[in-house]
Design a protein that fits this description.
The complex is a heterodimer of chains A (about 375) and B (about 300). Chain A has about 375 residues and is of the alpha/beta class. Chain A has 2 domains: about 210 residues, Response regulator (Rossmann fold, 3-Layer(aba) Sandwich); about 150 residues, Response regulator (Rossmann fold), CATH 3.40.50.2300. Helix content of chain A is about 45%, strand content about 20%. In chain A, strands 6, 7, 8, 9, 10, 11, 12 and 13 form an 8-stranded mixed β-sheet that branches. In chain A, strands 2-1-3-4-5 form a 5-stranded parallel β-sheet, sandwiched between helices. Chain A starts with a helix and ends in a 10-residue tail after the last strand. Chain B has one domain: ABC transporter involved in vitamin B12 uptake, BtuC, CATH 1.10.3470. Chain B has a two-stranded antiparallel ribbon. In chain B, a hairpin with a 5-residue loop joins strand 1 and strand 2. Chain B starts with a helix and ends in a 10-residue tail after the last helix. Classes of the chains: A alpha/beta (about 375), B mainly alpha (about 300). Chains A and B meet through helix 2, strand 7, helix 8, helix 9 and helix 10 of A and helix 1, helix 4, helix 5, helix 10 and helix 11 of B.
Chain lengths: ~375, ~300
């Protein structure tokens, strides 16, 4: 071996031992959507999560991020790799409910913790709940339930309801109807990924409804809002925050102004944690945070609060530390219910324009300390 | 009655939009024998070019011109750099290579413009709704799409049927070696046909982007429908593409509008909605299957 070779070998050994010393902390695997049409959501969750780690200045957490391409099979492959070869302690990051259903049950069965920063399918909140599964965002139905409660208080009595034909879409309309007390002027399920709503808008025009509830996340919502504004129909719209998040609003433009939507978070919630988050996020990434960013940020802070209290290798202690939810949520009050889903206030927001930027402001509270409809079915 | 009239217009508009996509695809497939999966990417590029130029200059019309230019230029470039090597290969190689192009264009667009949807607004002349004779209120921009689609159809019929270029295109479709032997520069002809198809896709992208959303991956769902259209219409036939596109547009729109109501006559309301919507989304594929049973080469297809 030449001198140069020895030097390289020596350096490599040094780097290896340094690496091993570093790996004492908690290893976190983040599986999220970073490419394709749904990438904006995953990027926001990741950025929020990383911002929290950076602000805490901790070196205890080693984060591995992988792109699931919004495909369940790829998410499962990544999860297997993270659990078996990377040996992560905690998994997080999944945006879509169908991907969560593919990954979460197997991961928690292998004793890993899963912290959901977004997807909250009813199956994982009720009979399929697990002691190692925590949802930091909401149960899927929550924002729709709040929209129903808001519709009552706004005096709407004849709603037209619109959602894509997939599990989260049917859950959305079920959630809305759980609180909404008026009649149904129409109930239409569209294709998932549909971008032309001319036929549905014609039905709305002729339905005689006094309000329209719609759940159309991502590009579907942009398309619907723009076409609705062009159509000359002026029945008021109500929906969950997903179609009105910070990034989508810029693409919808004026068409969204004045629309009421429901969310567990907004940038104007008045507490020190939120103010610090909004300011740091803008400084770091040069854009306003969305609700997905806030969910990623809260998930990381929940994790950090548990790491400070307990060792992740001691599963029972770590679980108890997570259950305590002893962190400053950007939402204000935050607690876990018996099925490890949030109990939180859900607000009504209105889309406004601040300077050149479209954003939301809170105009009221739709539901206070709302848990979810499935907690009673959960036996841990 | 007004509802039905509005739905018929919707079907017509949807059909015209599909025609703009399918016309380019059927030209490339019919004349050059090439399956181009990246056609949807050209649609996306047109939409992004329109949104970017409209945002920079404030003019939708400049954006529209840019979408045509950008898609045609990119189409010509892709044909020269990649597609040209694929004509003699079999369809599987073409599918693989053009699928790779989809990934390159999608991630390239994301790299340039980011993952978040872009904003593209309508010009003031075309925004808002118009009241048609008979009291029907209909968005002005959708009427404009129907008009533009009809103009493009007339233009293409004239180009293919009445001009020297059209004669060459038809000749190239029938026998490419023979017209090359007759002294026609077949390579240049193919580049032109490909660029023309790309420009039409770019135009469709810009028009649709302004009523829907401009985002990465917007082209692929439309591409599938465009393939359905050319299979129904017959591969290589512009007339087939027009008739096929209108059939698909009408079937899809009227199916979605009427089926749930039809089922509600003898079923419970919620069951009728779910059965009706499920069946409506299958309807165009049922139509395709029926047409193929009746005419295996499509409505106006010449090739077996």
């Amino acid at each position: 071996m030449t001198l140069k070779g020895k030097l390289i070998a020596g350096l490599a050994t040094l780097a290896l031992t340094a690496g091993m010393a570093h790996a004492e902390g908690v290893k976190v695997g983040m599986i999220t959507t970073l490419s394709g049409g749904g990438a904006g959501l995953g990027i926001d969750v990741r950025d929020g999560f990383q911002l929290a780690l950076k602000m805490a200045g901790t070196s205890d957490v080693e984060l591995i991020v992988e792109d699931d391409q919004q495909k369940p099979d790829i998410a499962v492959q990544i999860a297997d790799k993270m659990i078996q070869s990377d040996q992560v302690d905690v998994l997080t990051g999944i945006i879509w409910s169908n991907l969560a259903m593919a990954v979460v049950p197997a991961a928690v069965a292998q004793g890993k913790f899963y912290l959901s920063p977004n997807a909250g399918p009813s199956a994982l909140a009720g009979a399929g709940c697990d002691k190692n599964y925590f949802n930091v965002a909401w149960q899927n139905d929550n924002l729709h339930e709040a929209a129903g409660a808001y519709a009552n208080s706004a005096g709407y009595a004849n709603s037209f309801m619109l959602a894509p034909n997939y599990p989260a879409g049917t859950d959305a309309i079920a959630g809305y109807k759980r609180f909404y007390e008026g009649a149904a002027a129409g109930e239409v399920y569209t294709q998932l990924g549909q971008t032309d709503y001319a036929a549905e808008i014609a039905q709305i025009r002729n339905s005689g409804a006094d309000s329209v509830f719609f759940f159309l996340p991502g590009g579907m919502g942009i398309a619907f809002m723009k076409q609705y504004a062009e159509s000359g129909v002026d029945i008021p719209l109500v929906g969950p925050a997903f179609s009105f998040d910070q990034n989508i609003l810029q693409a919808v433009g004026d068409a969204a102004l004045g629309v009421k939507n429901t969310s567990q978070w907004n940038k104007d919630i008045d507490n020190p944690a939120n103010a610090a988050f909004v300011e740091a996020y803008q400084a770091e990434y040069g854009r306003l945070p969305s609700l997905y960013s806030s969910q990623g940020y809260d998930t990381a802070n929940l994790l950090l609060s548990a790491i400070a209290k307990a060792d992740v290798k001691d599963a029972d202690a770590f679980r108890a530390a997570l259950e305590a939810a002893d962190f400053a949520s950007v939402r204000g009050d935050f607690a876990f219910g018996p099925n490890h889903h949030p109990i939180q206030d859900i607000y009504v927001r209105e889309v406004v324009k601040e300077g050149e930027v479209y954003t939301n402001k809170i105009i009221g509270t739709a539901l206070e300390d709302r848990g979810d409809a499935y907690a009673a079915d959960c036996k841990m | 009655m007004l509802l039905l009239a509005e739905q018929v217009l919707n079907g017509l508009q949807y059909g015209m939009m599909l025609f703009l996509m399918a016309a380019g695809l059927t030209l490339v497939f019919g004349v050059m024998g090439l399956i181009n999966l990246a056609h949807g990417s050209l649609y996306m590029v047109g939409a992004f070019a329109c949104a970017a130029v409209a945002a920079a200059t404030g003019s939708f019309w400049l954006g529209l011109a840019a979408s045509l230019a950008a898609a045609a230029a990119l189409g010509a470039m892709v044909e020269i750099v990649v597609i040209r090597r694929l004509y003699s290969r079999d369809h599987l190689d073409q599918v693989l290579a053009t699928f790779a192009l989809i990934l390159v264009f999608s991630e390239g667009t994301r790299w340039l413009f980011g993952s978040f949807p872009l904003y593209l607004s309508l010009p003031p002349v075309l925004s808002g709704a118009m009241t048609l004779p008979g009291g029907l209120v209909y968005p002005a921009f959708r009427l404009a799409i129907i008009f533009i689609g009809a103009m493009v159809a007339v233009g293409l019929f004239w180009l293919i049927g009445r001009t020297r270029l059209g004669i060459r295109i038809r000749a190239g479709e029938a026998d490419r070696e023979m017209i090359a032997a007759l002294g026609v520069d077949i390579a240049k002809l193919y580049t032109m046909v490909f660029a023309l198809g790309a420009a039409l896709a770019g135009l469709a992208g810009a028009l649709v982007g302004s009523v829907q959303s401009v985002q990465v991956g917007m082209g692929e769902p439309v591409l599938i429908l465009a393939f359905v259209v050319i299979v129904i219409g017959g591969i290589g036939s512009i007339r087939g593409a027009l008739i096929g596109a209108l059939l698909v547009g009408m079937t899809d729109t009227l199916g979605k509008a009427l089926l749930p109501g039809l089922f509600a006559r003898f079923m419970e309301a919620s069951a009728a909605t779910s059965v009706g919507s499920a069946l409506a989304s299958m309807l165009i594929y049922v139509l395709m299957a029926l047409v193929l049973i009746w005419r295996p080469t499509g409505l106006y297809g010449a090739r077996a």
